[in-house]
Design a protein that fits this description.
about 325 residues; alpha/beta; ornithine cyclodeaminase, domain 1; Rossmann fold; 9-stranded parallel beta sheet; 7-stranded mixed beta sheet; 11 helices
Length: about 325
């Protein structure tokens, strides 16, 4: 029997604090070449949504996440993100566990957002805010709280914001502008509208952009990207016009960001090249430079990496025995 982790099982097995530690270790292992990750494959079902196949290999295990993103689902009473994570033994190919992809995704999204904020934000940052009170936004706020930091929530749906804030012990932001002005800002929206226009971020701010995780999505204007320091995901193809932005872009993995997320728009506009970007993992291991001054504006643009999912799956397996898990015959 192969253990199956429901969403509740995943959340019981992996605390937000443990998720952040696991995701940090995954970025470091990937930066050092100990973990590998083939490109994510998108299967578009637009305009409704898309399917994604995400493989990774590390720590003696292989993983495949088959996951969806259907932003219109909540209006139908359905979750935006659904799917399964399959974990196998990399020494013999045998399946080890099946996990609910929605819960894994939420935990690693919150972990990556807060990890980036802690790594790149000012050391004296006081305020934190999350824009978007969906499942992933809630997980991000919970991660801030688990790290001992108070956090404000804002969402276009006021009732949802208040319900989530009351459930997890967060604050409700007075308004959208107040939330956007936080020292440490995380945006977890469907990515259909620009939140950060040119000139909207002030010196010293950090923003983790977690919502623009697929083609056609964006949370920040290209003009704003051109004037800040940015951390992002995976990059495969870069522009060749040689235009350099007034800042440097950082990535957790270059290959993915050039096809998806906010940075693709900057590449298409010719304001970013490969030489402008470093991986977040490289910053964590000290081979790339992070924030250089208290006035730097830093951006982390994330489309989500399978190594993060692998980290959460392995962390869940640490607690598999004490949990009363159902099994699957595979």
């Amino acid at each position: 029997m192969i253990p199956f982790f429901s969403g509740a099982n995943v959340r019981e097995a992996v605390s937000p604090e443990r998720a952040l530690e696991a995701v940090r270790d995954a970025f470091i292992a990937y930066a050092r070449g100990d973990w590998t990750m083939p490109p994510k494959v998108y299967v578009p079902a637009y305009p409704e949504g898309d399917f994604r196949a995400m493989p990774a290999l590390g720590a003696g295990h292989a993983l495949l996440k088959w996951v969806t993103s259907f932003p219109g689902n909540p209006a139908k009473g359905l979750p935006t993100v659904t799917g399964l994570v399959l974990l196998s033994d990399a020494t013999n190919g045998m399946p080890k566990a099946v996990l609910d992809a929605g819960a894994v995704t939420a935990l690693r999204t919150g972990a990556a957002a807060v990890l980036a904020a802690e790594t790149l934000g000012r050391t004296d940052a006081e305020t934190a805010a999350v824009i978007g009170a969906g499942v992933n936004g809630e997980a991000t706020a919970q991660t801030f709280l688990a790290r001992g930091r108070s956090v404000q929530l804002w969402d276009i749906d006021r009732a949802r914001t208040e319900a989530v804030a009351e459930r997890i012990g967060a604050e409700v932001a007075p308004g959208r502008d107040e939330a956007l002005a936080a020292d440490l800002l995380v945006t977890v929206t469907p990515g259909r509208n620009i939140l950060l226009e040119e000139g909207s971020l002030r010196p010293g701010q950090h923003a983790s952009l977690m919502g623009a995780d697929g083609p056609g999505k964006a949370e920040i204007a290209v003009e704003e990207l051109a004037r800040v320091r940015v951390f992002c995901d995976d990059w495969e193809q870069v522009g060749t016009n040689g235009i350099r932005p007034r800042g440097r872009i950082y990535a957790d993995d270059w290959e993915q960001a050039s096809h998806n997320g906010d940075l693709v728009h900057a590449v298409e506009a010719g304001v970013l090249t490969r030489n402008d970007v470093a991986q977040l993992g490289d910053v964590l291991i000290g081979t790339a430079e992070g924030r250089q001054s208290e006035r730097d504006i830093t951006i982390f643009d994330s489309t989500g990496l399978a190594i993060q999912d692998l980290a959460i799956a392995l962390a869940a397996m640490e607690s598999a025995n004490p949990l009363d898990l159902p099994g699957l015959d595979l």
